[in-house]
Amino acid sequence: MIPVTVIGGYLGAGKTTLINGLLSAEADTLGRRLAVLVNDFGAINIDAKLITAHDGDTISLANGCVCCTIADALGDALDKVLAMPAPPDHIVIEASGVANPAKIAMYGQGWPGLSLDAIVVVADGETVQGRADDKFVGATVRQQLAAADLLIMNKMDLLSDTQARAAHAWLEQQAPECRILAARFGELPAAVLLGQHAAGQPQYTDTGAHDDYCAVPFKTARPMDRTRLKAQIATWPRSVLRAKGLVYLHDDPSHAYILQLAGNRHSLEKGPAWDQAGPGTQLILIGAAQAIDPTWLEQSLLSACV
Amino acid sequence: MARNMEQITVYPARVVRTMEPALPVAEAVAVRGSQIVEVGSLETMQPWLAAHPHKIDDRFRDHVIMPGFIDPHLHPSMAAVLLPMHFITALEWHLPWQEVPATRGHNEFLDRLKAIDLEIADPEEPLFSWGHHPIWHGEVDRQTLNGISTTRPIVVWHRGFHVLVVNDAAVAWMGMDEADGERHPQVNMAEGRFFETGLSLAYRYFNPYILAPDRFEGGLNRLREVVHHGGHTTIGDMAAGMFDLNMEWDALVKVLERDDTPFRVQMIPPGFRSGGGAVDGDRLIERTVGLRQRNTHRLRFYDHVKLFADGGFYAGLMQLGPPGAIDGEAGEWMTPPETFEQVARVYWNEGFKIHVHCTGDLGVELALDTLEKLQWERPRFNHRFTIEHFGVSTPEQVRRMADLGALASVNIYYVHELGDAFWRHKLGHERASQMSRLGTLARHNVTTALHTDFTMAPALPLNSAWVAATRISEAGHVMGPEERLTLDQALRAITIDAAYILGLEHEIGSIRAGKTADFTILGQDPYEVGAENLREIPIWGTVFEGRPFPTKLEG
Ligand SMILES: [Zn+2]
Question: What is the distance in angstroms between the Cα of A220 and the nearest Cα belonging to chain B?
């Protein structure tokens, strides 16, 4: 199944800049071909913009009509992507500025061939508090923030340190469980935004030139206890943004289990049988460089082993 | 000398209700070609008759002639999807091909479904039913429907389109992978139930069937009959091209642009179809104006455009101002408020007549804030900025509408169908009883039309006028008596004032010399039977552009 990342947030928060960053020539998408679906004026057009650098497509789609729900432009666009001769490795949907991203994310939770990676919500650090009090869009903005697995506080370049701290504290109040990341110009590494590549064994890549984030690899040949692992994940600090990899479980030693974590959201699903190399857990955790404690995380994971 | 040698036809009637205050009641109307030459009595129109060949046509001698009814906001394409389905509804529906009785009770619903199953000859033909409502019919699920048939695909569609339920045969027919349904948060595969966003998954498999050109055209043919039987001679397609403009346009022209179609369709396209993105004004205008090249005699794009503020009323997605909804649910914006303003400015500055879908009072507020800004920047008179639907509003907003020159096109059926439910679950009694506040609009002289948004309400103008003048809910309560219209106001709202909303008041909407000869022919006089009996008045048929179109074959 192709993972889907939904990028939400109010108009002008910087969603498009963030996505353009992913599609830019310099971006390291970890070898993935991306398809990006954006809300834009006009009809659905798969050939709208071909980004050869990453062989990714941008697909424009119109909003469905109000008076009926039968017309489903997004579903049609997703089917077109799935029907492409070489389907992408990852789909990014830019939700409209007033959409509830949780609703868009439902497409990753039941549409044939798709799985939900995460809901990433971008907030304009400078204006989000004002918007959240706006008589027209206040409720919409708060709903968007509440839907986030990863919350990106953008346009930090426009804020003083004091302002940044205040904005951060306010966002923490709005989304107390959520991981909050600071960004300038929407720049964030693909490994944080989209997670690690799904295909095959996880590769130990670093997260690129962004010193703010680091990858913590973990490897063990010892089997893990499912319940203990879940209990440990629940104790991980908010500085852990992403985790992905294969897990060797004590209760089903013949199959690899795929762990995926994106902010608050995580899943542990049955994967293929182990190959000749034999069973063994291999994970990569990605977190905020200043805050993450690799030794602590390693201890946490080891304590889940049998 | 004579510019038009065509013969004049004089229709004497029991009474002609012209809807012209200057001459409200007449005895006969004289028509030449598609035009009215005089309304009055046989005596007063003698100079015309002496000067030109004429005949007296007595067929309406015992009937009442009114201006042709106008519904300025309905959705032919949505109707084309719905009308091929089998109606099983809690309220009765009068369809030209069928009287749909009121079906109430769980067993009664299932009995009706079973009867339809037995009536369909082809054992493979899917059975789509519409109108299920748990309040009346109880819950049905996959097992219940398997009890009706294990071989025929059955799809039971909720009245408000928010839930549908399927049987085993339908799941097999759809060809969907049950595992996809099982992992979807808004699909319950065991119960065969798809709701909210889960519906998209079901449509994925249904749409090729329900939007197939043959079935769609069949649906449009039925729509044609519905519109005629309701007594309409003009309708507005208030979001033309909702599925796929080219596919719909081809079907509309094929089915409706025929000599025997007794009505015209004013096409009002959406001015902007997006949840955001950049607004390219030149491109919007070029595209919207370009649509007029398609125009035919009956189907016409012109200088009207539709914009959207907040979400759907039946879906409960209206944006409410304080104190919000009882259930605490937030509404939705169809267009981001900033984008809405930009797009509205583009069309305002080009002189367009803008119709705005507004369902909640916050939606109305956005539309009026925007209108006030635009009036400040570039004042316009006679701009016809129209609030469409007008579910929840405040009295102060109506006053502001009057100040700003805004008009209203109101879905009054909300009061009838949703009044009780929104009283108990959404708004409380005070606000639910004042939904679609027509009385206040009338007190402020805001020109107001009634519409059905068909398929949201039955496409029966006299039924709309009945609700407007009585405000009787489906449970029989009078909801907000101060917001009733008088009988005359209600009838204006389906004739001359509806024409004004569509910008056609100089051509249609009343009976006077020079206007198009569009009439609705009634079996009784609405002013005699009174507001309570409006919806029972039999409709003989219509006259469209001077030609009589009975709903049944005469003789
Ligand atoms: Zn509508």
Answer: 31
pLDDT in tens, B90-140: 888 889 999 999 999 999 999 999 999 999 999 999 999 999 988 889 999
Structural domains in chain A, CATH included, are: 2-193 (3.40.50.300), 213-302 (3.30.1220.10)
Pair of tokens at residue B57: 């046509």
If you classify domain B76-210 with CATH, what class do you get? alpha beta
Residue B339 contacts A where some CB pair is shorter than 8 Å: yes
Classify burial at B91, counting beta carbons within 10 Å of its beta carbon; exposed 0-12, middle 13-18, buried 19 or more: middle
B303, two tokens: 């200088």
State the ipTM, two decimals: 0.84
Indicate yes or no: CB of A140 within 8 angstroms of CB of B176.
Answer: no
Domain boundaries, chain B: 2-62, 76-210, 271-509
* List of chain B residues whose C-beta atoms are within 8 Å of the C-beta of residue A74: 200
Cβ–Cβ below 8 Å for A110 and B335: no
Tell the residue number behind the tokens 């929840």, with chain if given: B392
Buried b (16+ CB within 10 A) or exposed e, B270-305: bbbbbbbbebeeeebbeebeebeebeeebbbbbbbb
Question: Are A39 and B81 an interchain contact pair (Cβ–Cβ within 8 Å)?
Answer: no
Cα–Cα distance list, B534 to B68, B254, B466 (Å): 16, 34, 5
The reply to whether the predicted model has a pTM over 0.80 is yes
CATH number of B271-509: 3.20.20.140
